Write a sequence for this structure.
């Protein structure tokens, strides 16, 4: 049985004081949501602060990005070992904003995935198609190419210690969520693709959905058989909205 996870991707938002009160509010509401794994991904500079604030909580910490290098002359980069050192358990890899705005391509993302695992972090590999790709009927081939880049370098067994996030680019920050059926179809495709390589890994790997998940659509998304929780952007910045989504994850676990 896969335990649902709800992860908050705070992107480029927050300050020490706003983050303290956000974490405070999330922690007080999350204590009763025992069936869902909760994770937050603050901007790099706030990771030690959040690690400290989460010390007595079961909420885990993730980074939004990681270097493919472990050390050296790479100005501006942050290594996986450093993230581990300050208390991260996870890191996002290949969020569509990294792919589209910063030009991160499949090959480098595969190396980031390997670097994260090597340092003991669990990578959350983000995949998803643009609207043009969906309209051209390329959703499955795009997602498969993004997955295969990592599978080729890291191998299918590496997904025993990884999470996949399906995030259709057209649904991110737009208010336009994929329907539960649209999302389920792609999640099922991803799981079947991995099944062809290893059934046990495919059954184990969590596949999160991301893209305009809100309190009022989370429950029906999380009820789908291959959707194991969500990666939440905008709604993760408001404690009550995020907690309502976490509650949907908690309830979905109890329903199965
Ligand atoms: P959104 O972002 O929830 O604001 O659509 C999701 C994401 O980018 O991970």
């Amino acid at each position: 049985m896969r335990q649902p996870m709800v992860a908050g991707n705070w992107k480029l938002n927050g300050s020490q004081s706003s983050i303290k009160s956000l974490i405070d509010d999330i922690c007080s509401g999350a204590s009763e949501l025992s069936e869902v794994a909760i994770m937050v991904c603050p901007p790099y500079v706030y990771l030690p602060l959040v690690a400290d604030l989460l010390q007595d909580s079961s909420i885990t910490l993730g980074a939004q990005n990681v270097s493919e290098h472990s050390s050296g002359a790479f100005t501006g980069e942050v290594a996986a070992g450093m993230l581990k050192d300050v208390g991260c358990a996870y890191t996002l890899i290949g969020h569509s904003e990294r792919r589209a705005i910063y030009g991160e391509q499949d090959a480098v993302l595969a190396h980031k995935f390997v670097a994260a695992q090597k340092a003991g972090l669990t990578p959350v590999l983000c995949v998803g198609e643009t609207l043009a790709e969906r309209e051209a009927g390329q959703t499955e081939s795009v997602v498969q190419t993004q997955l295969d880049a990592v599978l080729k370098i890291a191998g299918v067994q590496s997904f025993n210690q990884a999470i996949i996030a399906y995030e259709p680019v057209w649904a991110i920050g737009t208010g336009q969520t994929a329907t539960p059926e649209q999302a389920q179809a792609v999640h099922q495709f991803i799981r079947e693709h991995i099944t062809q390589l290893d059934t046990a890994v495919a059954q184990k790997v969590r596949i999160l959905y991301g893209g305009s998940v809100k309190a009022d659509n989370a429950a029906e998304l999380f009820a789908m058989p291959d959707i194991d929780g969500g990666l939440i952007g905008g709604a993760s910045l408001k404690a009550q909205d995020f907690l309502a989504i976490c509650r949907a994850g908690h309830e979905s676990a109890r329903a199965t």
Q: What stands out?
A: The first helix runs from residue 16 to 30. Residues 157 and 201 are 7 Å apart (CA to CA).
